[in-house]
Structures are given as C-alpha cells and as structure tokens.
Design goal:
The chain is an alpha+beta fold. Among the domains are: about 50 residues, Double Stranded RNA Binding Domain (2-Layer Sandwich), CATH 3.30.160; about 30 residues, no CATH class. About 25% of the residues lie in helices and about 10% in strands. The chain is built from eight helices and six strands. The protein has a four-stranded mixed sheet, covered by helices on one side. A hairpin with a 7-residue loop joins strand 4 and strand 5. Helix 4 crosses helix 6. The longest helix is centred in the first third of the chain and has 20 residues. It is rod-shaped. About 65% of the residues have low confidence. The structure holds a DNA duplex. InterPro entries: CR1/CR2-DNA-binding_regulator, Znf_C2H2_type. It is found in: Nucleus. GO terms for molecular function: DNA-binding transcription factor activity; RNA polymerase II cis-regulatory region sequence-specific DNA binding; zinc ion binding. This is SLC2A4 regulator.
DNA sequence: CTTGCCGGGGT
DNA sequence: ACCCCGGCAAG
C-alpha cells in the first residue's frame, strides 16, 4: 500500500539518521523522551530493574519547558520557547513486550524492530499523536507551520517537529546486557554513546556564538579523575574521546549539563567495567622472559626501560 | 613487593 | 643516535 511504502521510507530515513546521530552505546541506544522536557538531551543512565542499562532523562529542573530549538536555517531566530527538534524514536516497550515482527539477528540496533509505530507532535504544548507519518506531517504543516496549500512540495521541515514512538519490541536492552567489556588496550573506545545533539544535525544553522572551543588534541585519555575531582577540561577530554562532538556544545550547553556530563562519563566507564587508564599489557616482556640476568637477551627497548618492542601487546 | 615504561637525563 | 635510570602506576 502507499501508506506502507511511505512508512518504510520514513523508517529508512530514521535509521540512516540514527546511524550518525543517535546515542549509540556500543550499538545500543535507548533514549526516552517525553515532550516538554528534552533540553539538550544530556542523559544520565541507570540500571533498570533487570540489570540492563538504560538511559534516563537527566534530572533537570532548571528549564523544564524550553527544549533546544531545532535551528533549521529559517528558524534560527526561534531560540527559546519554540518547538523542540524531532527526536529519535521513543521506546515505550519493555523487552518482554514482544509484539509483532521478530528482529533480524544482525539488524542494526537502531533500525526499527517493532511493528507498531506512532508519531507524536513535538510542537510546544501540542503532543498530538497520530498513527501515520503523513498524517503527522499534514498536522504540523497545517496547524503549526501554516502551510495549507503546498502539501506535496514540502521541504521536509515537518520532520523536525514530530517524533516516532516505537511501541513494542525493544531488542536493545538485551543487546546491552550481553555486552562484554571491550579490550581496554584499544587506544580509543570502539564506540561510545554520543549525546544526541540536535545542533550537530544542522551545521549551517550553527550560530556564531557556538564557536568551536579550541581544544588541545588529545587522542586518548591519559588520566582518570574521580567524578568529584573531574574538572571541566577533563569533561572536554572525555567528550573528545566519546565522539568528538562534546567540545563544540560544551560551551553552549551550560553549566548544569556540563556537571551532569562530568558525573556521567566516569560512572559509565566504571559501570562498563573498564578503566579509562591504559592497562598494562598481559604479554610477557623481555624482562620477565629472560630474567634480570640475561639482560643482554632483552630487546633494546627493554634494556632502556622503554616500551618493549619484541613482545608487543 | 615486582613489572612495564615514561620522562628526562647523559654520552 | 645510543644508553641509562628515577620514578610512577599497576598488579
């Protein structure tokens, strides 16, 4: 049916968008949104009842009803008090709520895996829920954008003002729970959760006040701080390691979120059972292999107390 | 305590 | 360039 085709199209687009922007936690984003409290989407996380990880909304009371503006080029003047950006799909289902289609084993976690999708308007204090994307686009176009006439030459702006509500199967959490700690010897964590930062989706609309902070290049974390002792520049370093994007927003996103970020990241690292510090390699090195006598058998690096070149990690 | 090795010397 | 070692973090 045309309706089905349209839905597929929307879902495909959502999947593509998710690939590049959603907060992937080793391929498993679980982001919950409810209208009116989106902020800039800095989340804390907590373990859910069954031990899986999930992302919760940060407890943010400072500006409950002023979500970040979508900042499409023609709407940069919205800034505050205007509708929020379209968010990723919202998972309402619990893992046990198996309904509908079974997910392919190796589907990308971000790809829609449930049968039922609803669409919710994110326009400020609207919240209308419709069952079809086209209906929602029409709603937004008519009610909020005031474009009655040209329904088929839409520029897609409506997409920014509604969200998909994913109702049903949620295969993400069990993917999360099956995660094994990644090899900490990697110079960089393979995939890290990326904060969902609407601004980054709209490069041309980035206001000039959002000057990228000049951050010293720091390919990997070399120091660990306790959450309490973690100062803002550390947060930036962590941000770089996590997705390279934090630095850009940290200047704008405010102290509160920065504090939360600061608190979140080390906790995440801790909970994932990995240390941010470079671990000691488990390979036996010249010293151990040949012993303190037979030092002449060591590789030169070991003799010079440098990183062993013979038994690499 | 031992081990691996970075940073900082010396020649 | 080659060599050495103090000192530190990790185990």
């Amino acid at each position: 049916t045309p309706e089905k085709a349209r839905l597929d199209e929307v879902m495909a687009a959502a999947a593509l968008t998710s690939l590049s922007t959603s907060p992937l936690l080793l391929g498993a984003p679980v982001t919950a949104f409810s209208p009116g409290e989106t902020q800039t989407s800095v989340h804390s996380y907590s373990s859910s009842n069954s031990g899986e990880w999930c992302w919760d909304l940060a407890s943010d009371q400072s500006s409950p009803s002023t979500p970040s503006p979508p900042l499409p080029p023609e709407a940069a003047h919205f800034l505050f008090g205007e509708p929020t950006l379209r968010k990723r799909k919202v998972s309402l289902g619990q893992p046990q709520g198996e309904v509908g289609a079974v997910a392919e084993p190796d589907h990308h976690p971000c790809v829609q895996s449930s049968a039922q999708v609803m669409f919710q308007c994110l326009w400020k204090s609207c919240g209308k829920v419709l069952s079809t994307a086209s209906g929602m686009q029409r709603h937004i176009r008519l009610v909020h954008l005031g474009r009655q006439a040209e329904p088929e030459q839409s520029d897609g702006e409506e997409d920014f003002y509604y969200t998909e509500l994913d109702i049903g199967v949620d295969t993400l959490t069990d993917r999360l729970s099956s995660l094994t700690p990644v090899s900490p010897t990697a110079s960089m964590p393979p995939v890290f959760p990326r904060l969902e930062l609407p601004e980054l989706l709209e490069p041309p609309a980035l206001p000039s006040l959002l000057q990228p902070l000049t951050l010293s290049p720091h390919p990997m974390l070399t120091s660990v701080d306790t959450p309490q002792a973690c100062h803002s520049h550390h947060a930036c370093q962590v941000g770089e390691a996590i997705g390279g994007s934090w630095g850009q927003i940290s200047g704008r996103s405010g102290a509160l979120q920065r504090n939360e970020v600061r608190a979140c990241v080390p906790a995440l690292a801790t909970r994932m059972g990995m240390s941010l510090r470079k671990p000691r390699g488990d390979a036996k090195k010249c010293r151990k292999v040949y012993g303190m006598d037979h030092r002449d058998l060591w590789c030169t690096a070991c003799r010079w107390k440098k990183a062993c070149q013979r038994f690499l990690d």
